[in-house]
Amino acid sequence: MNKRNAVASVEEAFDAIDASLPEGWRVELIEGEIHVVPPANGEHEEIVSEITGQFRDHRKDLARYTGIGLRLPGGSSGNRVIPDVAIAPKGSFADDQEFHAPTGVLLVAEITSRSTGDSDRKGKLRGYARAGIPHYLLIDREADTATLFSEPEGEAYVRRVSVKLSGKLELPEPLGFVLDTGEF
After folding, report:
1. What is the percent of the chain where pLDDT is above 90?
2. CA pair distance 160, 171, nearest whole angstrom
3. Domain 41-183 class in CATH
4. How far apart are the C-alpha atoms of 22 and 130, rounded to whole Å?
5. pLDDT tier at 70, thresholds 50, 70, 90
6. Strand bridging mode 79-81 / 69-72
7. For residues 148 and 138, what is the distance between their CA atoms, to the nearest angstrom?
8. What are 117-168's pLDDT values in tens digits?
9. pTM of the prediction?
């Protein structure tokens, strides 16, 4: 099998799995591996709600997207991910595509779970940096921390600031407010 057929096979497998999943399940392609993610639990969704609520309260000019697909550079077939939260200018995804270029995305957030923690901490971190997304917020429930990665350079972020969950995390401009993780 040549490389071109392998790429088509990964994309075809991704599409086939995506089409066959029950409601609430997601499929992502991260660094050449297909990840099937079960529906989130209540604690996960409470954190998503709190993050989006604080953005709504502090930054009414920005839209809060949950469940939006992003196409990230990297690997022979690229990466297709669905961040738990994406913050971007309103209207950034006003089309019928399932996966979008991350142009204009200011922040993505992931909340770890047993099934996603490893890819949230490694593959997605590299993918979001490679895509040039300015800020990556990782809510690591296992480590009990909230970490803001910023200043993407290549496959890494130059700056990293962490607080214990229940602490306050300053989100620099253009986000410009303090995220209170006390409700997480």
Report:
1. 68
2. 12
3. alpha beta
4. 31
5. very high
6. antiparallel
7. 6
8. 999 999 999 999 999 999 999 999 999 999 999 999 999 999 999 999 999 9
9. 0.90
* 54 close to 177: Cβ distance less than 8 angstroms: yes
CA 57/CA 44 separation, integer angstroms: 20
Q: How many residues does the structure list for the chain? A: 184
Q: Are strands 107-111 and 85-89 parallel, antiparallel or unpaired?
A: antiparallel
Determine how many CB atoms are found less than 10 A away from the CB of residue 156. Answer: 13
DSSP the chain: --HHHHHHHHHHHHHHHHHHPPTT-EEEEETTEEEEEPPP-HHHHHHHHHHHHHHHHH-TTEEEESS-EEEE--TTT-EEE--SEEEEETTTT-SS-SEE--TT--EEEEE--TTTHHHHHTHHHHHHHHTT-SEEEEEETTTTEEEEEEEEETTEEEEEEEEETTSEEEE-TTT-EEEEGGG-
